[in-house]
Amino acid sequence: MALRNTTEHYGSLSIALHWLMALAIISLYFVGDYMVELTYYDKLYHTLPHLHKSIGVLVGLALVLRLAWLYSHPHPTKLATTPEWQHTLARLGHIGLYVLILALIISGYLISTAKGKGIEVFNWFEIPALLAENAERGEIAGKIHEYSATLLMLLVLVHAGAALLHHFYWKDNTLKRMLGRL
Question: Which of 2, 108, 109, 158 has its CA 20 to 30 A from that of 99?
Answer without folding.
Answer: 2
